[in-house]
Specification:
The chain is an all-alpha fold and about 90 residues long. The protein has a domain of about 40 residues. It is built from three helices and no strands. The longest helix is centred in the C-terminal third of the chain and has 40 residues.
Length: about 90
């Protein structure tokens, strides 16, 4: 049993050595390569049309207005309820 423990640790060490040696060397290229790849990726971007941007902006503004009014109503209702509860206690 102890002999198996020793062989397992030896196998684990071999795996660790292989994993270290399997690592790829650090790739070089620098800033020039980075900008070249950036330009390539920017060409792949699908930009929305002006109409789509305006439509999405309108939707966002509408949802924000609705949520603002909803939260105002909930806050006002809870404030009123708490004031009524506190009047009862005094």
């Amino acid at each position: 049993m102890a002999k198996n423990d020793v062989t397992k640790s030896g196998k684990e060490k071999d795996k660790a050595k292989k994993a270290v040696s399997a690592k790829e060397p650090k790739k070089k290229g620098g800033l020039k390569r980075w900008f070249r790849e950036l330009k390539s990726e920017m060409k792949k971007v699908v930009w929305p049309t002006k109409k789509k941007v305006i439509n999405n902006t309108g939707i966002v503004m509408g949802v924000m207005a609705f949520m603002g009014l909803f939260l105002f109503a909930v806050d006002s209702g809870l404030t009123y309820a708490i004031r009524q509860i506190l009047k009862i206690g005094s």
